[in-house]
Design a protein that fits this description.
The structure is a homodimer. By secondary structure, chain A is α/β, with parallel strands linked by helices. Chain A folds into 2 domains: 121 residues, Rossmann fold; 40 residues, no CATH class. In chain A, strands 3-2-1-4-5-6 form a 6-stranded parallel beta sheet. In chain A, helix 4 packs parallel to helix 7. Chain A is globular, with a radius of gyration of 16 Å. The interface between A and B is medium-sized, with 27 and 27 residues. Chains A, B: Pfam families: NT5C.
Chain lengths: 177, 177
């Protein structure tokens, strides 16, 4: 039988962009933004200097050196037994991130083939059975079943099924088999 | 009314990769491959030294300097009035091509926003109303209406609607409005 497909986001889902963003932003801005202080804020509220934020995101190696989210590697390896996994990451806004994202996946997720990596802008034409993402802008319009992965900016959103970590994501998906 | 969507391939459709490939391949290999000599051949027959071919495709600036296909710019500008255009290009196999493709589009097609650019491997999860591509591996499994753009390697394929150039593509698509 054909495996069901899952589109999995990178930033905030496989990669802990929050930690890296806080560190770089504070260093550049002299602020003391912390994980706790930004809970429930929109990204543009949490990192209010947009020019600085874009500068940070355009920095060489920013995306290449992101920490991996806890349990992400083992979870994808396990899910791959029963699902076809596609990595679907918004990246074309920041061209320097493109090759870095492919290299990052190659380092931590070498079992994901290049055929299954998609770097995009909008995710509106992505059609998979499930989409795991931290942004409403992607989940609200996805063609399959949306699964919201908890991030600071989405804790007050209640209209999607939520998973707080990779263990919960695997448990939910395996329930559907 | 929501505009119908078109996924448009880059290599062989917007960009004349055939001309560039022949030039680079012959220079590296001392061969005399020509447009005429490869008509109807599969890519692996036309460029039989696979290692050399991969080397050429991995060369810095190979994709950045591709010539634009005749009438492509004007055609996309015109189609954009009635359709939503997504550029969908297989690129993750060659990471050096990723940023080059975005820059190339920025130079020749500045009216295409980053939101509408998708760099992928397989196109199997792309869901648009139309897909314009030169490869059966993409068209055979696409979710919308496949439109085959003529290239040397597909001239003997007869199972898809064919357009030989951008003027024909526009004429067909505007007929469907």
């Amino acid at each position: 039988m054909k495996k069901k497909t899952i589109a999995i986001d990178m930033d905030g889902v496989l990669a802990d962009i929050e930690a890296q963003l806080i560190e770089h932003y504070n260093k550049a801005n002299g602020t003391i933004v912390s994980r706790e202080s930004i809970q429930g804020l929109a990204e543009e509220e949490a990192f209010s200097d947009r020019t600085l934020l874009r500068g940070v995101l355009n920095t060489d190696n920013f995306f290449r050196t992101l920490p991996v989210m806890p349990d992400a590697v083992e979870s994808l390896q396990r899910l791959q037994e029963n699902f076809e996994i596609f990595i679907v990451s918004a990246a074309t806004e920041f061209p320097v991130s493109l090759a870095e994202k492919v290299a990052w996946l190659g380092e931590y997720f070498p079992f994901i083939k290049w055929e299954n990596i998609i770097l995009c802008g909008s995710k509106r034409i992505i059609n998979t059975d499930y989409m795991i993402d931290d942004h409403c802008k992607n989940l609200d319009y996805c063609m399959g079943k949306p699964i919201m992965f908890t991030a600071f900016h989405n804790v007050n959103q209640t209209h999607h099924l939520r998973v707080n970590n990779w263990k919960e994501a695997v448990a939910y998906l395996e329930e559907t088999l």
